[in-house]
Amino acid sequence: MKITHYIARRYVFSRSKSSAINIITGITAVGIFAGALVMFVVLSVFSGLREYSYSFIKGSDPDLKLVATVGKTLDFTPEIQTKLQKVEGIASYSKFLEERALLRYESKEQIAYIKGVDQAYKQVNPVEDFVYMGQWDIEPSQAVVGHAIAYRLSVGVFDYENNMEIIVPKKGKGSLSQNDFNQITVHPVGIYSFNDEEIDAKYVYTHLVLAQHLLELDEKKITGIDFKLSEDASEKQVRSALKEIFGENILLKNRMELNETLHKMHNTENLIVYLIITLVVIITLFTLVGTIIMVILDKQLNLKTLYNLGLRISELRSIFLMQGLLLSFLGCVLGLILGIGVVLIQQYFQIWMLSDTLPYPVKFSFVNLLVVFVTIMMLSYIASKIASNRISEKLFS
Prior knowledge:
Shape: elongated
Radius of gyration: 32 Å
Oligomer: single chain
Distance between the termini: 30 Å
Helix content: 40-55%
């Protein structure tokens, strides 16, 4: 072991004759400990919030979505179906057809989107997990409506005395009269909620055949296709295969691209919180600079002896650089150990609650662990370097 490392370790673990230095060193260690603990817990909470938010878009958005870029619809022929079955990486897919429509329930009206889906839709999007009233299974004369739509129209499920009317303009009509609309009647059998007001107010899910009939389209006309990819799938290869099948006049988006605004918002929030906590840690590390400088002054006679015995100025500086790093390492590791314990307890036992039914969302992540450790150790290195540079030949003159 180098003599400088040995001395640095002695300075960390042995008590000084000055009680003031002992107190300041203890405060510094506690500050680093608290900084690591708070930074890790807060980052874990924001990771949990992001995971909680993404759990809702998993029900409304697929792994990969395909829509036409030219016109409103594309043709889904038996040849295309055969080709899709041969594409590796596609676990399942579902065809859909959507269009804006006027909804009428009793005397109330609402503009929304009608989305006709086939029977495979719930295999691609677990939307049935978000149906909190009624059921998902949709027959050609049934519909599942969003919570916001149901609230505004006062819709009940399985109310066969009051049906919902879906009204759309007929194709090719410029000026519209009362006879220029197609209209169908459906029975609401379920109400869904993704905890997103925009989505809950957007869609009424119906059967694909019903939507094609309402819009006067044949059975091969669809708006797009939702895909569920297998766990070992290569999204890049699947995208390439789909472009070969459908041509270039299609748009492909994965779940993150469909929710780009939400993704950017979470990343911005994480960055801002990280910078704020880092600023707090930087302020805390000012005490580390002060602690090392006070130790240097306290050990001035010992340092002069070591200097006269042949230790270079750079080696003396490395003693206090190592002391600061060792003190920070111990505080950081202990803070992270406690932080990991707090996060795992909340993640598995849900002790702290936001409400009676919703616990504080947290998620343990090795990335957060690494970010906290690297951040604190880098800042500690800078602080220790600044403090150790106070040692110069003038100190021994």
